[in-house]
Amino acid sequence: RKDASETIKKWLKKGKMVGWADTEDVESINFVRDLYRRGVVVASIPEGKPGLMAMEINKTKAKVKPVIEDGRLRLDISIKAWGEYDEQVGVPGNVHVDKKFIDKSEKQFARVIEEQCYRTIRKMQKEFKADVFQFNRILRAREPAYWDEIKEKWDNTIFPKLEINLNVEVKIKL
Prior knowledge:
The structure is a single chain. By secondary structure, the protein is of the alpha+beta class. The protein has helices spanning 23-32, 99-128, 135-142, 144-150, 154-161; strands at residues 9-13, 16-21, 39-44, 52-69, 72-89, 163-173. The protein is built from 5 helices and 6 strands, in the order ββαβββααααβ. Strand 3 (39-44) and strand 4 (52-69) form a beta hairpin. The radius of gyration is 18 Å and the shape is elongated. The N and C termini lie far apart (42 Å).
């Protein structure tokens, strides 16, 4: 299965394969790790109207900030995406693409990216207990003393239960 597809990746944990990733997982990991370069995100038309819309993303920026409060760790992740409104399909009649529509669309695309990233994060935490996001490296670099205290418990205790706050912003260029 080594060359099955570029979009299928195997997850390794301590040198052993623990599972396979689909396109959505790889995309999410790239968003969180600030490696996402270009792509298309599809979302429902805002306000429950029928149809789908697409946005072509041409730039992203992600930041992961470890926060330690009362001895408890959480990660605050900020993802920003910029791009262009691409198209809409399955829409009866015309949807007027104005500033109000774009504002609502930005929120809708942000929700899609956020939900997708949360799904992948939870999957890696609960199913695989595999830190493919390299949060451990970020923590070790930014909070070395805290890392030394928890590193032995990271894989099986800390990472699987780690609180993660995700904030996604999308900006569409008209």
